Amino acid sequence: MHKNCITINNIAFPLYELDVIIIGSGAASLNCADALYTMGKTDIALITEKIGGGTSNNTGSDKQTYYKLSVSGKEADSPYDMAKSLYDGGAMHGDLALIEASLSAQGFFHLAQIGVPFPHNAYGGYVGYKTDHDPRQRATSAGPWTSHHMVQCLLKEVNAKGIKIFDDHDVIALLADSGRAVGLIAMDKTRINEKDFGLVFFKANDVVFGVGGPGGLYQTSVYPEVHTGAIGLALEIGAVARNLTESQYGLASTKFRWNVSGTYQQVIPRYISTDQNSNDEKEFLNDYFPTMGKLATDVFLKGYQWPFDPRKIANYGSSLVDILVYIETVSRGRRVYMDFRSNPQGDARIGAFRFTDLEPEAYTYLEKSGALFGTPLDRLAKMNPLAIELYAKHGIDLHTEPLEVAVCAQHNNGGLAGDIWWESNIKHLFPIGEVNGSHGVYRPGGSALNSGQVGSLRAAQKIAHREVQAPVSLSAFTQTAQAKGREMLQLLNTFTGSMQSPSTIADYRREFQQRMTRYGAHIRDRRQVEQALHDARTQQQRFERQRTSTLAELPFLLQNRHLVLAHAAYLEAIRAYLEKGGGSRGSYLVMDVRGEAVLASLGDSWRYKPEDPALRELVLETVMDEKGAFHSHWKRRRELPQEESWFENVWGKYVQGDIFNTKSDI
């Protein structure tokens, strides 16, 4: 790494020149840095807004799942079988599915080797269990904090190798020249008060983009508050996005953001709603279910049918619970809680709660768990005491208070498009982790963690083994960097000149977050989305009308710049999908007055359009043009490839390095 300077408007800014810059400090970014160093690429650095921030280090569930090839027991499995499970989710390219399956064991065993506490039996077998959309027992877990363990172990490896980390640096712009990533501009938040606003320039041959999912786009979100995402930075330079329509939504607590899946639901807590002042308590689910046995069974099933899924609505399916919570919180403006202190109470119509009224799946599970007794809290203490401790550590005592919940944005299956090496259409830019849109409509639970490890390894392999190419010259980089630097300086000077006015940054962010939660989340209507997209474009044009009150707000202001851009891209993709005639699938409901009824008692306003299965054979790509407008187009997905399996041929190509020069479409 070489330190230099770059001059803009007679101000000298720090300039770092290095081989590879890796953005982000989550599990994918750390793994990429570790892999690059091991492969001999040592002129590298990580840049992050906060070590310990982000989704990987701060999220989990009652039993956070990691999905990989079955590596224990008698049940047969193969990379092709696993790839088919991924591919069958729809709208996923077959070659990417095969890669994620083929390298899953390597990624998993690397994590186990560096200390992630995945459980194994006395014979060394890493046993598994079934997760959602999983025909095998491929899932494993290190407990509620699986991804946190991954981050901590990978960070230890990165620190042991002495890899440079630029902490407290917000990336505010990516730099590209002729369709190639050449570096970035960051803001050192410890130097905002200086005359250069803490701006730092980085020149790199390759840029790894591990900024996570779009956590900052939604008002109702289970993404940790410390995580906003930054996909808009790549969209701004022309990176193609894929399947932005496909996100997962599910019930989560809001005071402390955490998925309430698994045991939290299987102990069958009481669901209540109140007005905004916590008065007028009502057990609202009672009004919609025919019997308490059906109601309680549905709540139980939410444990492993946790993501909202339109296929689980009919005949009082478990996703009806999500819709009823949405009606209470969004349509009626009430607050919803899960109360573990008492069993569901029922009423004269549906009856009281009794274990014997549960359907066999729920009753048998609780019976085998020795949990046919007491209150939900008693059962939770028996089946998963760590679930109680987790909330206690965050100031929520389930013994004395109910847990406020909502249907929240949880994960984006879509993201930026990449080829079989996770390289974008913007050459030398590698989106990895959740920001890479390799997933399709449905994915097995835990496959996102595997995808992040596999994708980051593939990016490292390509960077370390690609044919030698001449780096962008310093003079060409300087020209690109100065142009973007002047633009950012003008923006910052504009806002610091208005610091006597009350701040409007939070209001500006709240506006697009509310829009995404209402129109771009799990309940979608074509006419409303079209209006929301129009309003999104209008808000973009009002960006410079924001006002700051302190220099400390500048990072949040610049986050709004790429977030408002990103939310317009997501709404455009949703609009294009609905225009194509797309129906309810994945984790969202497409409203249609001529469609199927959610529930007769909800009336015609709650009817939805069924899925068009033919669209699973296509992927939707979205890109911004030179005028700043987003456009979408459809592409047929690539089938599962027939990989070459003759050892001598593969060996020869590998030794000669031809494998790493394999070309592919994005």
End-to-end distance, in Å?
A: 31 Å
Average of the residue pLDDT scores? 96
- Give the class from helix and strand content and strand pairing: alpha+beta
Low-confidence stretches: none
Strand tally = 22
- CATH level 3 topology of the domain at 249-410: Flavocytochrome C3, Chain A, domain 1
Q: Over all CA atoms, what is the radius of gyration?
A: 25 Å
Topology record:
Elements (H helix, E strand, L loop, with lengths): L1 E7 L2 E13 L3 H12 L5 E4 L7 H4 L6 E3 L11 H9 L6 H9 L1 H10 L25 E3 L4 H15 L3 E3 L2 E9 L2 E9 L10 E11 L21 H6 L4 E2 L4 E7 L4 E2 L3 H4 L3 E5 L17 H10 L18 H12 L3 E5 L20 H9 L7 H8 L1 H8 L10 E10 L2 E2 L12 E3 L15 H19 L8 H23 L8 H15 L3 E2 L1 H16 L12 H26 L9 E9 L9 E2 L9 E7 L5 E7 L10 H9 L11
Parallel strand pairs: 2-3, 2-9, 3-6, 9-17, 18-19
Antiparallel strand pairs: 1-2, 4-5, 7-8, 8-9, 10-16, 10-21, 11-12, 11-15, 13-14, 14-15, 19-20, 21-22
Helix pairs in contact: 1-6, 1-14, 3-4, 5-14, 12-13, 16-17, 16-18, 17-18
